[in-house]
Design brief:
alpha/beta, 5-stranded parallel sheet, 4-stranded antiparallel sheet, 11 strands, globular, binds calcium ion
Length: about 200
């Protein structure tokens, strides 16, 4: 069974959060929620979501600051959902690296369509950078589109974080990758004064 895609909602209005959560879980997404910017940033690095839905008017920080920080280390899909309708707000969010901007109020169908579009786009980028939709080596197969891993045809069940570690190693197959690069890819910004290295000699 493919791993469910995880969507993080950073939104302080509980009613909107509940509405989006219900719409997404009905479509078999895994949903996690944060009601402040700080907890949102924490969940981004601890839970490694596949996509972020971000409100801009948060109680402890402006959502634009979250876009700025995430884009320092990750291309992960990020959709703004905001009541701000001014063109300059949209332009600023998009220029900072948001993938889309949805104005409240919005319907569930529109939100789901935009999420699918953002995920298709990010999967296409991941596939392009990997020169194919699958990685195969000595009986191990990774289907990046379906997020499935098999060994000699048998499915291997991994946690979200384990999956991301394996994908990172596969994409760096045969190359040396640093401990920091692995940490940063999986958990976000990471500081380590050491010089540890992980070698991926054909896995
Ligand atoms: Ca708000």
């Amino acid at each position: 069974m493919p791993a469910k895609l995880t969507i993080l909602i950073i939104e302080d209005e509980r009613s909107i959060c509940d509405f989006i959560t219900a719409s997404l879980t009905a479509q078999d997404y895994r949903v996690i929620t944060a009601h402040t910017g700080a907890s949102g940033l924490s969940l981004i690095t601890s839970q490694c979501p596949d996509i972020i839905l971000l409100d801009l008017g948060l109680p402890d920080m402006d959502g634009l600051e979250i876009i700025r920080r995430v884009r320092q280390w990750s291309p992960l899909p990020l959709l703004v959902i905001s009541a701000r309708t001014q063109e300059k707000d949209k332009v600023t969010a998009l220029d900072l690296g948001a993938d889309d901007y949805i104005v409240k109020p919005f319907g569930a169908s529109e939100l789901l369509a935009r999420i699918r579009t953002a995920l298709r786009h990010s999967q296409r980028l991941a596939t392009d950078s990997n020169d194919g939709q699958t990685f195969c080596l000595e009986g191990l197969t990774i289907d990046f589109t379906r997020r499935q891993i098999t060994k000699n045809g048998e499915p291997i069940h991994l946690t979200q974080i384990e999956y991301k570690i394996v994908v990172h190693l596969a994409r760096n197959n045969g190359r040396v990758t640093t401990y920091d690069a692995l940490m940063s890819h999986v958990w976000g910004p990471y500081v380590d004064a050491g010089n540890n290295r992980i070698f991926c000699p054909g896995f």
